[in-house]
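Notes from hallway chat w/ T.B., transcribed later so I don't forget. T.B. wanted the structure written out for a chain they're using in a teaching module, and asked if we could keep both sequence and structure tokens in one place. Agreed to drop them here.
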Amino acid sequence: MDKDTEAGKKTIVLAAPIWNKGHYETQMQLFLSILLPKNCRVIALCAEPEKVEKWVEEYMPDFKADLFTARFTLMGLRGRVRLKTGWAWSYISASIDKAASASGWEIDMVFFNNLDSMIYNTWRGVFFPRKINYPWAGLYLTPIFKRQPEGFDYYKKHISLKVFKGIKNCQGIAIYDEGSFNECQDFFDDRKIYVLPDVTDETMPSPLPLKFSAVKAKAGDKTIIGLVGLLQKRKGLLNFLRAAKAMDPEKCFFLLAGYLHWPEYTKHEQMEIKELLEILPETSFHFESGYMDDPAEVNAWIDLCDIVCLCYEKFYYSSGIMTKAAAREKLMLVTRGYCMGERVQRYGLGLTAREGDLEEIIAGLKIMTDNDRRKKMLAQAQFKKFMDFHNYCKLDEVLSGILEV
């Protein structure tokens, strides 16, 4: 490559303070696939840099020379200590400096895939210095404005946000939740707010493993109602299982797929979950237990569903599972209000139920399992209109605008 071409390259840091094998890994791959072909060099800071390198080698081999990786996380022991003591910003700034020195590249912009972990530190953390020496932007996943009920947690976060506003060199803040855009813009004043599409990997396994067709055969003509992904407490697992017990087993088949995160549940809740898992009949229930680090497997389970259950609790934000369901044109039952509930009502993607209300959840499922009513809802649902924003091309447009590439 000639020197003029090399000199014209922009260097972008993609910093992932939080990292897992699902959302953040997919997000890194999406961002790399957008930036590397745009005459950019990318420094990827994350917990598993070798996986990022391997992915680029496999899918974007022509751009290997434009990628530099380094290990960084706020979830490891060293990172957690700095996070809890309020030194997260200094720690990541030093990590960026180190990567810049090692790569020999002059950094133009830093993008954080998760600002929340650095905004919401301990109370003590808000009094420590926070500084980034480069122009930066980032994704704010859980904006409290409009959504989160006021209380101690809300006000603690509000104080942290006021301190966060004082960090210099910010070029923009991205959010997934379009419904809180005005409130975010009002709070952050002159900092530009961008609505980022919640884009996910939409690929399917090829060939499709036999276990999927086996579950489909077991369900037969019954309506398949699914809860898929990491089975945290906020996903509404208990009410999903309670609804499975209450619904007609001759008409419904409940599908549960994902890793059950037991530590989040109390001993009493754990006992109830185990009891429900034991008594639900195999003819109308299937539990595919285990962590799914392949997005294609998640998509395949969602593809089996007629209804995707998103009755989350104390979760006010966007979810990639919603995008996956919309991409496969699956009706959803979602908690009323908040980000996902507003989208379901705006685009007619299904029904909503009051947060944590088992009776409303069951009532909604009864409506949606009626074949005639479900067909009518499917005919009226505006899946395409929803996906017109939450797609790769739109992500390319918005991310490129934020990073000016």
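Follow-up for T.B.: Confidence is low (pLDDT under 50) at residues 1-5. Might be a good example for the class.
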